[in-house]
TrEMBL record, chains A, B:
Keywords: Hydrolase, Manganese, Metal-binding
Name of the molecule in the record: inorganic diphosphatase
Cofactor names: Mn(2+)
Domain DHHA2: 180-306
InterPro entries, sorted: DDH_dom, DHH_sf, DHHA2, DHHA2_dom_sf
Species: Allisonella histaminiformans
GO cellular component: cytoplasm
Catalytic reactions of this protein: diphosphate + H2O = 2 phosphate + H(+)
Length: 308, 308
């Protein structure tokens, strides 16, 4: 095992997988003995990108040892970290989310930028350090930015993300619109997933005023196949909520073509959901037009609603 | 009042004062309506630097209004922030300390580097943005780095601090060793301070495992005048500790010429102090040779000792 573990969040998306790969590669170029790991199963979209650019998947680990040196990418909240992080030594943190409950005993390098994708930040760190990414590294960073910004459709998209995509597409030698649509399609093809897996898809824990809740997300190009399984998915969502004693569990069913979200929630969360989004709920669901981003359009609103 | 307040910690040192000035200036150069403020009284060293480079002192404020946009420099722990910060909106954070209890609802720009002085980071942000600092701005950043690194004597000093000092001294048109020694002397001349003021000098609150304690620091070129007032200073330290119900209060009496520290503490803290530094205490004091840095050599050790 390398001296330093570079790792993204549990239930990793393409950004977390690619960030572990691209940032550990940059650190190695700069002389650090660092390697990429993952804290959960690969999704179809990440597999597509890894295959396309011929990159090996990061090794899976379910915990880190006490004292292990770790670099966190794409997350910082303890609830989203690989198990054991409390007794490990975090030596760097690069992220683009809100910051919550992250503490160190001594000063370390920390960089957060409010951009659509952490790989946009990492690509700029390559440039800052005059390290030219290989085709494979450029391809992984490109895939992550396309994924997180849903090909620039997400309101989290910034000019810096757009700029990075254009430069990275050139380095990776692909047409980013064609490649991006192909990759998003591969990721959205989840019709064969069982209800339990759909209910837990891309799920993150949040804490607000001592209450812990989860928000998952399914990105699709057609909501009908998911709607057809709603009863089973909701049962699985509630089962998982009860098992972990969460105050509620939410699931964003996001259509990346129509750019809207059906936010499903477990029983008992109606009042909070209605207050958070100022909408009427029906059938354990609020409809959120023009909402695609958990980070910007869903979790802050829920955190606020629970804190009030 | 400008739209955005740029502010350092309570009991500001030269780094916090200079960072508010230099970073607000950079943000203005980049188009933001930002201005420098301070959360406490100026010390003699900061006054010397401001006078020398003809820079106006930042305006004092004792609180920020709810909803006010704020950029924090040189600190992040809520106990060290200007009052009212909990209901203000922090939009950026640039620091070089440990991170503790800092949270946001949404992603913002955050940059921490483990360097000796936050102005080293800010100077690099000038360079990154191709903004050339004026003589006055270069002088303030230079003063801060000399202050925080005690002219490179502190173990917190990094190559980046040394590099920045050399470049900034050129921009400011001064010999940094001569200017630095003059500035440090001005700051160390605290013989006329009353005991209450010495006891509260450059004091920061810390929290560990629910226990709140303070660590202040007095930098001198001769410990005798301070030792002569020890009884009065200790009485004032204990009075302040009791008034705020701190678990303990510590005061570093640091000789910047001999590069060592006498760490004074209030009654009842002997066990923690001995454990933290693996030293025997006598007369409410542990002697710490080669220790000058609160951030690196004192507060992490105390935080750890309280958490055990």
């Amino acid at each position: 095992m390398s001296k330093v573990i570079v790792i993204g969040h549990k239930s990793p998306d393409t950004d977390s997988i690619a960030a572990a790969i691209s940032y550990s590669n940059l650190k190695r170029e700069l002389g650090m003995d660092a390697a990429a790991y993952r804290a959960g199963e690969l999704n179809k979209e990440s597999k597509f990108a890894l295959d396309y650019f011929g990159v090996e998947a990061p090794e899976f680990i379910d915990h880190v040892e006490a004292g292990q040196q770790v670099i966190l990418v794409d997350h910082n909240e303890s609830k989203q970290c690989v198990d054991g992080i409390k007794d490990a030594e975090v030596i760097e943190l690069v992220d683009h989310h809100r910051i919550g409950d992250f503490e160190t005993a001594s000063p370390i390098f920390i960089l957060f930028c409010p951009v659509g994708c952490v790989n946009t930040i990492i690509y700029n760190l390559y440039k800052l350090n005059n390290v030219k990414p290989s085709r494979a590294m450029a391809g992984m960073m490109l895939s992550a930015i396309i994924s997180d910004t849903v090909l620039f459709r997400s309101p989290t998209t910034t000019d810096k993300d757009r700029e990075a995509v254009k430069e990275l597409a050139e380095l990776a030698g692909v047409n980013y619109e064609e490649y991006g649509m192909e990759m998003l399609k591969a990721g959205a093809d989840i019709s064969d997933y069982p209800a339990e897996k759909l209910a837990g898809n891309d799920t993150k824990e949040f804490e607000s005023a001592g209450k812990v809740f989860t928000v998952g997300q399914i990105s699709v190009m057609d909501v009908e196949p998911i709607n057809a399984k709603k009863a089973d998915i909701m049962a699985a969502l509630e089962k998982n909520r009860a098992a972990h004693n969460y105050v509620a569990s939410y699931l964003m069913v996001t259509n990346i073509l129509t750019e809207d979200t059906y936010l499903w929630f477990t029983d008992g969360a109606k009042d909070v959901a209605e207050k958070a989004f100022n909408k009427n709920a029906e059938d354990n669901c609020v409809y959120l037009p023009k909402v695609m981003s958990r980070k910007k359009q869903v979790s802050p609103q829920l955190i606020k609603a629970y804190a009030e």
